[in-house]
Amino acid sequence: xxGLDQDFPLDIWISFSKFFEQYRGFLxxxxxxxxERAERVLKIAEEYPELDEGVQKEERMIELLxxxxxxxxxxxxxxxxxxxxxxxxxxxxxxxxxxxxxxQSIIETAGEDFEPQIKNLDEDHYYIMGxxxxxxxxxxxNIDFRRPFFYDIPDANGIIRHYRIxxxxxxIEIIKTDKAKDITDEDVAELLDNFDNVEVxxxxxxxxxxxxxxxxxxxxxxxxxxxxxSDFKTSLIKYDKTQGDFVxxxxxxxxxxxxxxxxxxxxxNYNYEEDVFERVPFKNIDSYILYDRxxxxxxxxxxxxxxxxxxxxxxxxxxxxxxxxxxxTPDEKMYKNLVAQGINSAIIAPIKSDGKxxxxxxxxxxxxxxxxxxxxxxxxxxxPYLIDSVLRSKAKAENELELVIQQECTSIHPSVHWKFRxxxxxxxxxxxxxxxxxxxxxxxxNVYPLYGQIDIKGSSDARNxxxxxxxxxxLRGIAKVINKVIEIDPLPIxxxxxxxxxxxxxxxTEQLQVDSEQTIINFIKKEITPLFKHLKKxxxxxxxxxxxxxxxxxxxxxxxxxxxxxxDESVMLINKKMAALLDQKQDEAQGMYPHYFxxxxxxxxxxxxxxGESITKHNSFNKxxxxxxxxxxxxxxxxxxxxxxxxxxxLPVALDVASMVLVFNTSxxxxxxxxxxxxxxxxxxxxxxxxxxxxxxxxxxxxTDQRVTEKGKLVVIYSQRSDEIEYIKxxxxxxSKNYLENEIEVVELDDLQGVTGLKALRVNILYNKDEQDKExxxxxxxxxxxx
Length: 787
Description:
six-stranded antiparallel beta sheet
């Protein structure tokens, strides 16, 4: 608290002159008692003129306390001593000249050394408040920038109670000294713009340049519930899962509202889709109902009574004695959970909005009857704010979910995001103006496409081979069981099944046909599975043998999934590694010049890129950026090939890859197809590009049966002589950097449907055995080295 010796614009004189003035008026009263009291008080004024003129020294003031007590007697009515919290004081000080019994007992309860502090009043504000008294009382400016003043005082239970202080300034006068400056309207205007600059105030109101003469009567009111509710609203507004101990402050607020020191607060969310309660996904927030579970069905988590009150009556359910309730319904999980947590009374309240349940507020106490249906009514003050907050956080959670879905599933590349935002703003403006429009398709004109793929060679053969091996394994397992069955029980039907099984093994070993695969699967499903089920019950030896057979099978698809699993895992690992490398390098390429990029995983990884003015919108595009990206693409294909062959030895199934780049020498338009959530070329001429892209890797070198793409080679497919000249320059550069071997092969391709005149450059890629290796190998050399 500010000391009496602190800087202050007012020189403080404690005086009762305003009281004496009033009492002089009472001398003329018709009321004899009032006249008598006035005479008694004015006698004190005569005997102690300093009480009129003003006292400054604290020691003298203490000596005069008995006289002060009598002067103030009427202001402190005896009848109201136990109810009113009132003190006579001087501005913003703890100097108490007289107080009611209730104030004294509040201060005593707070503890021996407790001195009440006015909340949120620092030295600078203290000075400015002094100036505001002068402006208001002397100049009559009604400047109300005083926030309400509060004392925070702990009660017997240690709960902080909040008391609002209201000052009565009827008994003061403000006197101007010759040190004081005249205050003009211009000064006031300047002060209003400088509330936080104490230097400006000190310049207009020098220290002790005015006199404060009088006393202030201050009334205090317990506003703990109001302040707690206000804190509650503030913490709900500020609430953000990144903030520290949200629940701790929440609990303090509830403890103040209920005036109970040991209560705790929990929450659970209501998941409408699954009709379950779930924990709130933030640290430190408990759910006492769910106890040790993440989620639980509503009927299981709540007792019948609570369920009825929350869902049917939409009101709270108070349990004043948990153990007594448990005795009457011993099977209810809710009471068992509460008892296990040492909870003896609780209030469970629904958080509802527009008839929809959002979640549950759980207030719990270790003490019997501490929470009950009477104090549950206090929730009526809290609930509206809580509902608002839960609605906000649910909306926020929904938005975050949607964001995750968009990012993970239908991500829009940053390079084109601006155009979607532009369109979304137009769309939203139209909705606000109630002028409905459709979301226009986003089109980029005049962009250059680049396409590349690193493809797993012979993936369909490899997959078929894996299926073949798995089916043979399974059929042999079946044959083993059937042979045993024939030993035990030689029925002709078993002979026939055995014959068919072996026949299928022969057929499938020769060549896997799509129809033969389906026939075998049907045979196993319709004949073998039911038969084995029957045989298991007949004989223990057979049962053990069938168990061994079933152990071979994948639990989900009920067939052998050994070789296919190895193949699928290999493909997944290749895709993952290639995509990760491409993404990482892409970041660097975006730094060179922004462009659109997307990639897809299938049996390998393919990528599309578009570069052009309409994407960057900065009048900055130059063809040099296209040439740079073309060179970068070739380099990245070589790096991906290298990375692949370095990981190849660790794969469950060794597979080969082949790389290809497609050159399209003119610009085209691309349109974002809303229904498919992807970019596609626009117009019939441009569609030719898509046709080539889909079919070209399967095309063959003219006059041969050989595919144009080949393991160990980088293949560049093009149609114009100018492309050939440009790309040979890039390949020569990459040869100088030891990415590629020296020889470049030029071949013509068979015509594709509607597309003629395609050619390809083919060149051997050079490999390192590992990242540290400085030797360069062709594909053949590398295979010899590795194997």
